[in-house]
């Protein structure tokens, strides 16, 4: 009996087709290779993710650009109303003007560099004000505490 079972098992294994037999067969009406289908899906997901990431980066750059434009326009609108500037230095060399503006900016002032009309000089403004009386009082403060040679420039 034992020998009969062993012989039947061997015969069954010998007659059973190998895996090569099933590779070319259709499964559910389609030739399929599950691994290649899975790899294709993963590739398409990776491509879609990278396209989405690039789109998000471009959108972030565009938003940052629009924000900076909005801030500059708001600052110009506010500074356009401020006619009087406390000038703490004037330079022909733009690098010197930038360095002095950075010094006053580190001290906490809202500095700006003004190109003087009809001149090559760049004026370093520590503050800009809309009222002449406030400008006079701030000028006295600057002359006493920050810069003795500070003066007022009136924008036209």
Task: Offer a concise description of the structure.
The chain is an alpha+beta fold and 156 residues long. The chain has helices at 2-15, 19-23, 34-81, 94-106, 132-145; strands spanning 26-27, 30-31, 84-91, 112-115, 122-129, 151-154.
What does this structure look like?
- With 156 residues, this protein is an alpha+beta fold.
- It folds into two domains: 30-81; 82-154, 2-Layer Sandwich (Alpha-Beta Plaits).
- The chain contains five helices and six strands; from the N terminus they run H-H-E-E-H-E-H-E-E-H-E.
- Strand 1 (26-27) and strand 2 form a beta hairpin.
- It is rod-shaped.
Overview features:
5 helices; 60% helix; 156 residues; Alpha-Beta Plaits; two-stranded antiparallel ribbon; four-stranded antiparallel sheet; rod-shaped; 2 domains; alpha+beta
Tally of distinct domains = 2
What is the arithmetic mean of pLDDT? 81
Strand order of the largest sheet: 4-5-3-6
Number of helices: 5
Overall geometry comes to rod-shaped
| CATH class label of the largest domain | Alpha Beta
Give the uncertain stretches in residue-range form: none
Q: What is the straight-line distance between the termini?
A: 117 Å
Order of helices and strands: HHEEHEHEEHE
CATH topology of the largest domain: Alpha-Beta Plaits
How many strands? 6
Sheet having the most strands: 4 strands, antiparallel
Layout of helices and strands:
Blueprint (H helix, E strand, L loop, with lengths): L1 H14 L3 H5 L2 E2 L2 E2 L2 H48 L2 E8 L2 H13 L5 E4 L6 E8 L2 H14 L5 E4 L2
Antiparallel strand pairs: 1-2, 3-5, 3-6, 4-5
């Amino acid at each position: 009996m034992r020998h009969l079972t062993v012989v039947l098992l061997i015969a069954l294994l010998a007659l059973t087709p190998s895996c090569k037999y099933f590779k070319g067969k259709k499964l559910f009406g389609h030739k399929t290779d599950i691994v290649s289908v899975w790899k294709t899906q993963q590739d398409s997901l990776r491509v879609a993710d990278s396209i989405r990431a690039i789109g998000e980066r471009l959108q972030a750059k565009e938003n940052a650009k629009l924000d900076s434009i909005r801030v500059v326009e708001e600052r110009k609108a506010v500074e356009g109303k401020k006619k009087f500037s406390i000038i703490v230095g004037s330079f022909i060399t733009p690098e010197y003007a930038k360095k002095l503006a950075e010094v006053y900016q580190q001290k906490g002032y809202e500095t700006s560099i003004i190109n003087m009309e009809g001149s090559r000089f760049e004026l370093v403004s520590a503050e800009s004000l809309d009222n002449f009386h406030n400008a006079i009082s701030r000028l006295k403060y600057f002359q006493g505490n920050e810069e003795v040679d500070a003066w007022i420039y009136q924008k036209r």
